[in-house]
Amino acid sequence: MHVALTGATGFLGLRLLRRLLDTHRSVTVLAHAGSENALHRIARFFELTGSPQAFTATLPRRLRVVETDLTLPRLGLPGRAFQTLADSLGTIWHSAGSINLEGDLPELRRTNVEGTRHVLELATAGRRRPVVHHVSTAFVAGGRRTGVAYEDELDDTDGFENAYERSKYEAELLVHAWSREHRRPALVLRPSILVTDVPPHHGLPSHPLLVIERILRDARRAADPHGPDPLGPGPDVPGPDGRPRVRTVGHPHARLNLLPVEHAAEVMVALAGLTASGGVDTYHVVHDRDVPVPTVVALLERLVPVSIDLVTAKPDDPSALEALLDFYPGVTAYLAHRRRFDDTRVRTRLGPSAACAPVSLDYLWSGLAPPADRTLARSPDGSPTALPTAP
Ligand SMILES: NC(=O)c1ccc[n+]([C@@H]2O[C@H](COP(=O)([O-])OP(=O)(O)OC[C@H]3O[C@@H](n4cnc5c(N)ncnc54)[C@H](OP(=O)(O)O)[C@@H]3O)[C@@H](O)[C@H]2O)c1
Fold it and tell me: Among the four 92, 110, 296, 381, which has the fewest Cβ within 10 Å?
């Protein structure tokens, strides 16, 4: 059955493509029209991540690239091209989307909700009734900060931390409505926060945790626009080690679910190979061990010269830097999350192959550290600094 993939140039999509190419002779890449050449970006990813040259050389004949725009009806294709594409497909993997945690709702709805609607229209049009594999997020659980989020839950009673979460929730609702209306099966895959140990490279999609790093760095720079060095000491209250101190609301026992993206892609493709129920099958693609937020904080302190204190309430006397960070409540809210994602369905169906090695600090550091800092940071006396580890 011929398979198409949206978002194949993305952080997750590239890994899904790698897996799909293990079992499919060819894949149709529904690339983002107007972006840099998709085939070049995909080939560069495979080269940079160590695929043999003999494999990379086969990509031009194994990948059929169709330029599309999710936000447009018929994905921006002329009527006949849209129908020909739809009729050629047996499976549509929908991984494209905007993961902009700071984006506004209309913009996110255009890509994530309308984009999903247009992908579902492609599936409806196909005469072979292609199956839809929709990539959602575990964060459709929204603003529920404690307790357990289950795979069969989809409601908005707790609200959402940001417009991204809401847009992904609305996209899932569309998938359910479509499945009911057309009596079609669909697979909904909900990964948690995806990470990698592949070092950052300008030719690769950005690591999701770099969003927080960038926010801190930008705020640092904006709080001290005339400072000689944006990474040098700032104007804010110094912390114990002379770095500007940032008090941000969080919980000392907060934790985040971080999952290696390569493992996520492997699990997703395995789930897609199982017998479907005929309705919407939803799976939490998550790690069985969360990473304590203090570990993530320590990691960020290595990347950006600030000293982060998790506090229970917003400070009454915010520094310039702290005031700037207040502009990103949809991101900093995660520092207070203590909920767990239940993945019983995945573990029951896949067994031990669903398990993933622990996400260690070294692993996270290799995926985030600028090339010059690739070894663990050192304290002033030259010894490696200790960081909290996952329990
Ligand atoms: N990354 C995570 O931690 C994470 C966690 C949970 C769920 N997810 C979900 O996983 C999916 C993939 O995320 P990702 O991390 O791979 O995101 P990403 O790296 O930002 O990639 C997004 C992909 O979508 C494509 N795209 C964006 N706008 C488009 C448009 N208008 N038309 C066609 N294609 C468009 C992009 O193409 P260009 O690059 O050419 O613009 C890119 O291939 C998303 O649905 C996301 O919600 C991600």
Answer: 381
Ligand 1 pocket residue status of 164, Cβ below 6 Å: no
pLDDT score recorded for residue 373: 59
Q: Note the pLDDT tens digit of each residue in 222-253.
A: 776 665 444 444 445 666 677 888 898 999 89
- The CATH number of the domain holding residue 70 is 3.40.50.720
**Is residue 114 within 8 Å of residue 170, measured between CB atoms?**
no
Structural domain of 264: 3-195+257-285
* Ligand 1 centroid – CA 250 distance (Å): 28
For the whole model, what pTM was predicted?
Answer: 0.92
Please tell me the distance between residue 225's alpha carbon and the centre of ligand 1 in angstroms: 32
For 322, list phi and psi in degrees, rounded to 5.
Answer: -65, -40
Which residues fall within 8 angstroms of residue 111, CB to CB, at 6 or more apart? 70, 71, 96, 97, 98, 167
> How many CB atoms neighbour CB 383 within 10 A?
8
Answer yes or no: is the C-beta of 11 below 6 A from any ligand 1 atom: yes
**Is residue 135 in a domain?**
yes
User: Based on the structure, what is the number of domains in the chain?
Assistant: 1
Residue 311, in any domain of the structure: no
Angle between helices 115-125 and 79-87 (to 10 degrees): 70
In a domain? residue 297:
no
Contact 134/95 with Cβ under 8 angstroms? no
Q: Is 10 in the pocket of ligand 1 (CB under 6 A)?
A: yes
- Between 186 and 203, where is the model more confident? 186
Domain-embedded: residue 56:
yes
